[in-house]
Design brief:
It is built from no helices and 20 strands. The chain is mainly β. It has two domains: 2-130, Jelly Rolls, CATH 2.60.120; 143-255, Jelly Rolls, CATH 2.60.120. The strands form four sheets. Strands 2, 3, 4, 6, 7 and 10 form a six-stranded antiparallel sheet that branches. Strands 1, 5, 8, 9 and 11 form a five-stranded antiparallel sheet that branches. Strands 14-12-20-15-18 form a five-stranded antiparallel sheet, with no helix packed on it. The radius of gyration is 18 Å and the shape is globular.
């Protein structure tokens, strides 16, 4: 089981360690630059989109419990010498197959960037938190279905895309989501909102049809995201770096009942 949270801010760190603000989020507690660790308190993966105008561009995660060794370095980083830094192609995500760092539930988790652009730029960090290392699941059959949306995404905000249009109508039954791809021109990340689920598992965003996503979040390799049926379905929240309204989603699903 895992969930996805993010940090986002237009900032010029000017070559010093600078905290960036968490994205407003109803699924976790936030105060100022602090995001408080929920019940899923192990670091599963993270990604950073920062200005790469300097060779020493860095991103870190900091929490009191991490200081038993050191702040967690987010590496590699991805980005560009541009006002908007989007996920790389292919995605650069640090995923831990084992040895997840334990955080303390309810402690503050901060995202820190250090780079030196000529002017403020959008920097973002996406973090996946889990209760344990998500193990692969191998259903007998996995099908990939597509849905589209036309919601006006708001930069720096988890925007709900609730009016999903599916290419095909699913047969009556219950389904397990075991992978996901999300695409929109300015997309940073996307996550599922499923009725009855407290957590919001998600993926880094793709910006075009040719943009290569991370295979570790597809076809059951990161375990089960959530379950749904043809009645309740689900929605998707998108985090964009700039406004657009051309969402596409691919869901790897297995029929389980």
């Amino acid at each position: 089981m895992f969930t996805t949270v993010a940090y986002y801010q237009s900032i010029n760190p000017a070559g010093v360690d600078s905290k960036i603000a968490p994205v407003a989020d109803v699924s976790v507690r936030i105060s100022g630059n602090d995001l408080y660790v929920p019940g899923l308190n192990q670091l599963y993966a993270f990604a950073a989109m920062v200005s790469t105008t300097t060779a020493t561009a860095l991103a870190r995660l900091s929490a009191p419990s991490l200081l038993r060794v050191a702040r967690q370095l987010v590496s590699p980083v991805q980005g560009a010498a541009a006002a908007v830094n989007l996920p790389g192609d292919p995605h650069a995500i640090a995923v831990f197959a084992g040895g997840l760092a334990d955080l303390a539930t309810n402690e503050a988790l901060d995202a820190i960037v250090n780079t030196a652009p000529a002017a403020p730029q959008i920097h973002s960090v996406v973090v996946w938190l889990a209760d344990s290392t998500p193990g692969p699941v191998l259903p007998a059959e996995i099908f990939t279905i597509r849905a589209t949306g036309a919601t006006a995404l708001v930069a720096g905000t988890w925007t709900s895309v609730s009016a999903l249009t599916f290419d095909d109508q699913l047969p009556v039954g219950r389904y397990s989501i075991v992978g996901m791809r999300a695409q929109s021109p300015n997309l940073l990340a996307a996550r599922l909102v499923v009725p009855g689920y407290a957590w919001r598992p998600g993926v880094l965003g793709c910006n075009s049809a040719a943009h290569r996503d991370d295979w570790r979040f597809r076809q059951g390799r990161s375990g089960e995201f959530a379950q749904f049926d043809e009645v309740t379905l689900f929605s998707v929240e998108c985090l964009a770096a700039a406004a657009d309204a051309a969402e596409q989603f691919w869901f790897d699903v297995a029929k389980i009942g």
